[in-house]
Fold these 3 entries.
Entry 1:
Amino acid sequence: MEPESGLPRCHRHPDVETGIRCTRCEKPICPQCMVSASVGFQCPDCVRNGSGTGHAPDANQPRTLAGGRVATDGRFVTKILIAINLALFIAVQVAGDRLVDELSLIGYAYNPQLGEVVGVADGEWYRLLTSAFLHQEIAHFVFNMLGLWIIGGIVEPELGRARYAAMCLLSGLSGSALAYLLSAANQPSLGASGIVFGLIGAWAVLTRRRRYDMRPVVLFVGLSLLLTFTRPGISWEAHVGGLIGGALVTYGLVHAPRVRRNLVQYAACGLVVLIDVGMILARSVALT
């Protein structure tokens, strides 16, 4: 049997010897318990009780399934997204078709009023995102806002504000990217359907992750896709692109291991961005 070193033992792990003490209460702490502070290290008890200044990973802060902060308002970002859509909808009603022509998703087309070529392939990259918040008809606007409000109220509290916002933006971008890739170059499209379908994809992933009954979600997804492919004038590419983009991002967010959570989540979002950029560049090269 090896002789003991004479060092004190951690007050939380009595079988571990240590030479480190908490800078606040001076109790012995082992490497597993040490919390980095502005000066030295502190024990989890001092940090948890608020008596320390350590940089613990928010010991008292509850976290969402994806690791985000739990907020009191579970629809904060959803309200902002609806407000943006509403502002653009009102602007379209005031400015008319001119604003729609400037912000809708057009791949590559000649505008006789301007006497010039317009579209994403002509360098108007902003259309990929502005079109995802743009509506012209009241029924289209109301339907998408209802979907955003209802499903967003389910998804946002599970992801947290920042992750939810990233997922919505990437869903909108994915929907626009696939529409840009597969639609006719001069076919304009607009609407938040890509974001709404991204929320549907996120909802499906979260339901599976929580091990809830998948049947209602599968039925809802099936009906949504049925309407997408049977109703005329619908950009199915934007719906499918948003659905896949939202599902991929959410899967990376909620399945990331805690040890490297941020790294894996950034990587998942980055992968979706790379796929979208790849589709956009391929289509631009083909059109120009």
Entry 2:
Amino acid sequence: MESLLSLAFDNLSSYDGIKIKKGLKQVEGLLAQICLSSPRPSSRQTPADPLGIQSSSESQRPPRKVLADLSSDPAFREFFKLQDGFEWNIAQRLLPTLDWLVARGGDGQYDLLIVNALDLIQGVLLLHPPSKVLFSRTMHMNLLLDLIEPVNCPAVQSATIITLVVALLDCPQNTRVFERLDGLLTITSLFKDPDTVREVKFRLTEFLYFYLTPETPSIPKASSSNQGGNGNNNGLLQRSPSKLVGAFGAGGGKRDRSVSESSGAVLSVETKKHYVDRYLPGVVDLLVKDLDTYKPFGGILS
């Protein structure tokens, strides 16, 4: 696994679009192998197909693993252990690549690579939630907020909004950074913009629904017992979010980029409703009413 990651990282760090595309494909292939089961060696006969009759495409497509099964999967355990350190952490390698692609924006070819990189970041954060600590850093949160700006194409905006949800999920410290960087202003301004396409407005509405749900006070932490017991302190998760943010400081820009450290404090739904109401007066009550009526998140606001 290390050799494959090494090849992928070499390609991702190049300044060649073709090599970057290859690196993204290599990372995608690795994640796919972790998330997909091996083809069953037994008979083709299954309960869903008692006569063994299935299309060639169905027979060649390995089934997805159930999330609960991943913890006992040796490949996933090895992957998770590697992600705990700086050297092999995929999210940390994808973010500089994404930043470079954004600098080359305005080209459809690079837009496709940006969407691909965002999709992979989503996957890595879901498979290795502790990597979300990277988005407690101002520069990385600002990168996502920049990608939501109207100058970007709808596909990039939609993929970024989904990535933002994943980065904030169960991470109050990341949400506080998002708020301090005027993330709500960015989201609501795009929502009110008459030029924003329907697909993006749908994603923005989903984000607001998500933002108005109760927060879970959990912070990704490293396991106290690393496999191998080498006791090294160089792992990604050995540092707290506040230390990460303080170490890298803030840069200049049109938003308030003065955040030096993030608070993991959990805010109430009422407080967040007040924040949203600043930018979308009268809309927040309709959003909460929809949440209560349609219960898209299992009715947790009821």
Entry 3:
Amino acid sequence: MDYEASAHAEPPPIRRQRAVEVFRNRFGVLFDDEVLSPSGGQGRYLRWQWSHGGVVIVPMGEDGFAFVPTYRYPIGEVSLEFPRGGCEADEEPAAAAARELREETGFDCAPSGLRPLGVIHAETGLIESEVRVFAAEVRRAGPADVLSTAAPEAMESVAEPVWVSRTEVAKWLQSGRVTCGVTLAALSLALADVSASGSVPLMGECRPDQPT
């Protein structure tokens, strides 16, 4: 909601008194900040800061949307998600999105073939870093094409993309098949974009990368 353009009052901020770093690795920094509440009470607030911004890609085509079955260690089960990850040092978001798409699905797409859909925050109560959302028009491929070219990271466990039509995706949401917050947010932006344009906008088609 745009509070500046709204008749609703804007809530007062929780103010940071001191940033307290408690953990750091190559992916980011965890803070346990000393804060001051709107009522004047002192407390602590956890805050995670990624080393670099994140990206999520919505693969779409004539067959609908492509979801990647991904085993997620924190929840101990497989989650249907869109490809996503973080930017490397000095890497532009579009380039990172093209790289993550290729690594997790095998679809080879130039950064110019991606279209930005917006920005989301994965968990506003904990993570301060933003995630940029991109749409990629892709062509469905056989399992052999995808599995031979996808190259997930060592600590990632993914299977071949699963396609769902635009009419069936609503049933997936109603049945709770998709629970990843980042994926749900990205899907909402994609559906709003498709609804506003009347159809999926044509971009440079991304195809499964062919090994040389």
